[in-house]
Amino acid sequence: MCAVDLGGTNLRAANIAGNGDIHARAKCPTPHTDDPNEIVSAIADAVSECSKQATASGQQVAAVSVVVPGSVSAETGLVVNAPNVPAIVGFALTKALADKLARSVVIENDANAAAVGEMWRGAGRGLKTIVCFTLGTGVGSGVILNGELWHGIDGTGGEIGHTSVDPFAGVHCKCGNFGCLEVYASATALVRIATELLPEFPQSSLHAIGSEHLSAKLIAQAAHEHDACAVAVFEDMATHLGVGLANVVNTLNPEAIVIGGGVSASFDLFAPNARAEMLKRAFPVPAQRCQILKAECGDDAGLLGAARLALATE
Q1: What CATH class has 125-296?
Q2: Where do the structural domains in the chain lie, given as residue ranges?
Q3: Beta bridge partners of 268
Q4: I need a surface site. Which of 45, 110, 220, 263 has the fewest CB within 10 A?
Q5: Is 264 helix (H, G, I), strand (E, B) or coil?
Q6: For 267, phi and psi rounded to 5 degrees?
């Protein structure tokens, strides 16, 4: 089957076998357009490329699964919200693709798919109840309870990145709320925190970079070199993430919380402190048993999850 990851910047596709092996890939820029049919055409072109590669190796693409950076209704195939691809908001993507491709199509939120991918082929193998965080530009999350992906009534369940961890003195979030986990534990948050803390650390090497050029990667590099400001940034991030983890533990009692996304490359800089904060705040027994794991599937988590979800419908 062919899995497609529709991102705000790039569109990636891959042929994935029933055991999770990836046999072919295609990639192109996501069209910047107001016309949802252009998005449909771009997805169709990527699927066509994967189909050609499948045919060349004696295989065929029988089904397509697409992950979207936003909320979707898996039942109706409607895209409820997609801030980075606004052209498809309110659009019946599943039907449009099924008509275009003449194949069965499944759509899913990207963070949900990543959670499924990690449970299938990543850090969550062998577990039944996990929460997966994707720490990137924002904070995405997916919840799997007793082996089943949790969507909620409207398809927006599991948006833990938009739970409040500092609501009264908190930073304003793009969702309209204040103090969301996303504004403290994302790559964007690391840059904001560093910019705010820099005046307190006149000797920091981050001054030489300049606030306009700061990135989560550069801050992490500085933290690994024991720069005091960069270390403080990750301590601040870990404290707020730990609050979010404690809320997850007390609410869902998962076996593990899996942390992926670009920020997870700095797992060693924040995970121990985040776990310590979680242990201070959550009920002792479920907190002690809950593992905090680094994701293993990288950028392929969403593609693998998409494939797994499609295979489950066959």
Answers
A1: alpha beta
A2: 2-110+300-313, 125-296
A3: none
A4: 45
A5: helix
A6: -50, -45
Q: Which of 167, 162, 166 is nearest to 138 (CA)?
A: 162
**Measured between alpha carbons, how far is 25 from 275 in angstroms, rounded to an integer?**
37
pTM of the complete model beyond 0.90: yes
**Domain 2-110+300-313 is of which CATH architecture?**
2-Layer Sandwich (3.30)
Q: For 73-126, give the secondary structure using H, E and C.
A: ECCCCEEEECCCCHHHCCCEHHHHHHHHHCCEEEEEEHHHHHHHHHHHHCCCCC
Dig out the tokens for 222 from the structure.
Answer: 């500085």
Neighbouring CB atoms inside 10 A of 263's CB total: 28
The tokens 């919840």 sit on which residue? Answer: 143
Torsion of CA 264, 114, 131, 248, to 10 degrees: 70
Length of the chain: 314
Sort residue 162 into left (φ over 0), alpha (ψ -120 to 50) or beta. alpha
Q: What is the pLDDT of residue 314?
A: 64
Residue 311: predicted pLDDT: 85
**CA dihedral for 292, 116, 164, 198, sign (positive or negative):** positive
Q: Between the CA of residue 82 and those of 15, 238, 309, what are the distances in Å?
A: 25, 28, 20
pLDDT at 84: 84
Q: How far apart are CA 194 and CA 214, in angstroms?
A: 8
Q: Running DSSP on this structure, what letter comes out for residue 211? A: G
Q: What is the DSSP string of 234-259?
A: HHHHHHHHHHHHHHHHHHH--SEEEE
> How far, in Å, are 186, 207, 236 from residue 204 at the CA level?
22, 6, 17
Q: Which residues of the chain have pLDDT under 70?
A: 314
Phi, psi of 4 (to 5 degrees): -125, 130
